[in-house]
Write a structure and sequence with these properties.
Distance between the termini: 30 Å
Number of helices: 11
Strand order of the largest sheet: 2-1-3-5-6-4
Bound molecules: NADPH dihydro-nicotinamide-adenine-dinucleotide phosphate
Helix content: 25-40%
Number of strands: 12
CATH architecture of the largest domain: 3-Layer(aba) Sandwich
CATH superfamily of the largest domain: NAD(P)-binding Rossmann-like Domain
């Protein structure tokens, strides 16, 4: 049996074991996949001893350990390199550990599954934490016309922009975002977890907006999605599809098999709605 786990703190809420068991069933793999709570300053030790077990193939890593995971692994993956964060670790035959970041491909695949065209669009990305860092390169590679980052703490957005250094990437202060007239707005902040808006929502900001995307997922629309609805934005997506797609990309790295995700997104949605 192939063994996997997800490490985080907190971790109890994680849907990853459920999602990966669904992938395994679909792809005829027999796996075990557990949730492991690591102490905030004890991830590397805990993950290393897990990965040393002979049956273990790899693990996922969530908040707040993606930077630690990046630092403990060999990184060939460009997305992880650009994000300076890893959410997927894999053990190589010689025992060394490789790190990947599948958050960005997860977001882009979910947008494509929902018929959101990225090419030539002006995209506003709100937030400058680990999730934002993970999606910047994949969004730029999807040929967006312009990617503009904003964040409550603007310096963090400026640091990301300086590190990535791409002529299609800009930084704008939260007070100035209405002038951008974005076609797509992606909320990569944790604001929705606290029932807060990440920015001031207005007619001026949203009058050309076709899609809003909130990386947070809940059993009802987030405040960000509700507010976009008020201003007439037709397509409003939450991060559940991204969660499943980033997991599918990790499963594919580990097993070489690409699970089909549509039905699984629906099943996980049902689980959340019944919580
Ligand atoms: P980080 O802690 O690294 O960053 C948090 C970000 O949210 C920062 O930009 C922070 O701003 C901002 N923020 C937090 N609270 C507020 C608020 N009340 N108002 C405005 N901005 C706020 O977290 P991550 O980037 O790793 O994760 C962010 C969110 O994305 C989480 O809610 C997580 O659940 C979700 N996520 C979803 C995924 C999915 O698959 N659907 C994958 C990864 C993450 P500041 O810098 O000013 O503090």
């Amino acid at each position: 049996m192939k063994k996997f786990a997800v490490f985080g703190n907190p971790i109890e809420q994680s849907l990853s074991p459920t999602i990966h068991q669904m992938f395994a069933e679909q792809c005829e793999e027999v796996i075990s996949y557990e949730k492991i709570l690591a102490p905030v300053d004890g991830f590397v030790e805990k993950a290393s001893s897990f990965l040393a077990q002979p049956e273990v193939v790899g693990c996922n890593v969530t908040m707040p350990f993606k930077l630690d995971a990046f630092n403990m692994a060999n990184i060939d993956d460009q997305a992880a390199q650009d994000a300076q964060a890893a959410n997927t670790l894999m053990k190589c035959p010689d025992g060394s550990i490789k790190g990947f970041n599948t958050d960005g491909v997860g977001l882009v695949n979910d947008l494509l599954n929902n018929n959101v065209q990225l090419e030539n669009k002006r995209v506003l990305l709100i937030g400058a934490g680990g999730a934002a860092r993970g999606v910047i390169s994949p969004l730029l590679e999807a040929s967006v016309a312009q990617l503009i980052i904003t964040n409550r703490t603007l310096e963090k957005a400026q640091q990301i922009s300086a590190a990535v250094s791409n002529s299609n990437l800009d930084v704008v202060a939260l007070d100035d975002i209405a002038a951008i007239k974005p076609h797509i707005i992606i909320n990569s902040t944790a604001a929705s977890l606290h029932q807060e808006l990440p920015c001031h929502m207005s007619e001026a900001l949203l009058d050309e907006c076709e899609v809003v995307y909130d990386m947070v997922y809940k059993n009802s629309p987030t405040v960000f999605m509700q507010e976009a609805h008020k201003y007439g934005v037709k397509k409003r997506l939450d991060g559940l599809g991204m969660l499943v797609e980033q997991a599918a990309a990790a499963f594919s790295i580990w097993t070489g098999k690409q699970p089909k995700t549509n039905a699984i997104v629906n099943k996980v949605r049902e689980l959340i709605n019944n919580q």
